[in-house]
Amino acid sequence: MEYLSVADARTRSGLRLVLTAGVPGPWGEAAKAVFAARNVSYLPVEQQAMQPNEELRDWTGHRNAPIACLDEEPPLTDWLDIVLLSERLGSGPSLLPDGEADRALSLGLAMAIAGPDGLGWHRRIEMTVAILDEPETTGTQLRAILGKYGVRPGSEVDSEERIVSILLGLAEQLERQKALGSSYFIGGAVTVTDIYWACFSMMLSPLPQDLNPMPDWLRPLYSAVSEKVDAAINPILIEHRDRIYGTHIAIPLDY
Ligand SMILES: N[C@@H](CCC(=O)N[C@@H](CS)C(=O)NCC(=O)O)C(=O)O
């Protein structure tokens, strides 16, 4: 993907979406998929993973990704704000169910996937906690960044339990839907929940290299899951995400 530099992006108007260049950051991939499904176009802007990104901070007040910057409006970093922006700007079928209870269920499950204390949050802890043991990270900026992501010695113990619980809950919901004749998380059509699960599943069981061309160092990190987590990846979850990528998200991934 071609990215604008922050300096160039600042001179442009319209929607600019800051994304971590070169890796499939799950929050960024989900934002891209949601905007695409809602026919919202944007200019991609480069963020560098785990770096200070000072120019970006100067522009938006934030250093990580994704960040959605629409004209002079305040930059949006939260997954929910990005989803609601796609609803506001986009066209075609909504990615949120009609009824309030179904809408709450859809957003609640997406929060379990992408929100604080959710699947992505805890999976990141599992993947990065070992960095704390590397002597060169002592006192560095990287250590400070990890601290903001809740990465502390021993924090991975709770993470495994939380990841398993979320995976079991997601699989239960798909089983319930299957019994009703639907292959989507809620109702009979694609919602943000389907898209967020598909994108975040890359952190546990990535699509093959030809569809998700990750750098060599990243694939083993994303793929290595504990036995307990592996046992909680019900095949219905993988069948679902393959179907969602096959139908609702552009592949091969381009980042
Ligand atoms: N602000 C986002 C979470 C964003 C996030 O955690 N981004 C991470 C993963 S894509 C990131 O930018 N990591 C690289 C970095 O921190 O430089 C939300 O609340 O939904």
Automatic annotation (TrEMBL):
Top-level taxon of the source organism: Bacteria
Name under which the protein is recorded: Glutathione S-transferase C-terminal domain-containing protein
Entry-linked InterPro entries: Glutathione-S-Trfase_C_sf (IPR036282)
